[in-house]
Design a protein that fits this description.
The protein has 209 residues and is mostly helical. It contains 10 helices and no strands. Bound molecules: zinc ion (ZN).
Length: 209
């Protein structure tokens, strides 16, 4: 999956819970960031091809890093979202966000944001394992237990960069823009459609590869 689909997958995961109704749009925005963040290890390209080949899809693409980052992003984003200044700056950056007042600080809300951050962040791993087939490239196993274990896992059902899921998520985005009150149902349908597409590829023996 590319960064866009990872982010959309995370945002839809948060929306489908319905928790954004109480916690606000910040929860979905945070989940989008958390779901895409594992690709930070791709920045190793700045240190050359050798570093990139050893670090990319390893340092950020494991359970330990994704859990840690997801929890950190969830907690920090929650505290930031409570700030009126941060919310208003974000609304200037992304128009049409609801100017709602989030509920005052509570440990239960903090736990909700951390939990959502962790789930969204971890979703990056199976997504990369599934979206990793390519007819001109070798599969790219994900070392989910690194650094404890070097074993990589891959289930290449859909081609990396496949546009069907991108299209489905864009469709969902427009539908949510048109019917914001139906965001939860639209997120459910979007996730269902993407999973059905993966299932379709699976049945077809990796038809999209
Ligand atoms: Zn990745």
């Amino acid at each position: 999956m590319t960064t866009f689909e990872h982010a959309m997958f995370g945002a839809n995961l948060a929306l489908v819970t319905g928790w954004t109704r109480k916690q606000g749009w910040g929860l979905a925005l945070m989940a989008a960031l958390a779901a895409a963040l594992a690709d930070w290890d791709g920045l190793s390209i700045l240190f050359g091809g050798e570093a990139y080949s050893q670090i990319h899809r390893v340092w950020g693409h494991n359970l330990f890093a994704t859990l840690f980052l997801g929890a950190m992003v969830g907690a920090l984003a929650y505290l930031a979202f409570l700030s009126h200044g941060v919310r208003e700056k974000t609304r200037r950056w992304i128009k049409d966000l609801n100017p709602l007042q989030p509920p005052p600080y509570s440990n239960a809300s903090l736990a909700c944001w951390i939990f959502t951050g962790c789930i969204a962040s971890i979703s990056h791993l199976p997504a990369d394992m599934i979206y990793s087939g390519h007819k001109e490239m070798t599969n790219w196993p994900v070392k989910i237990f690194w650094p404890a274990h070097e074993q990589g896992y891959v289930l290449p059902l859909v081609a990396w960069g496949d546009l069907t899921s991108t299209f489905l998520f864009i469709l969902a985005m427009f539908a949510m823009y048109r019917w914001p009150a139906k965001a939860q149902a639209i997120a459910f349908l979007a996730l269902l459609a993407v999973n059905a597409y993966i299932g379709f590829c699976w049945l077809g023996g990796g038809i999209a590869r």
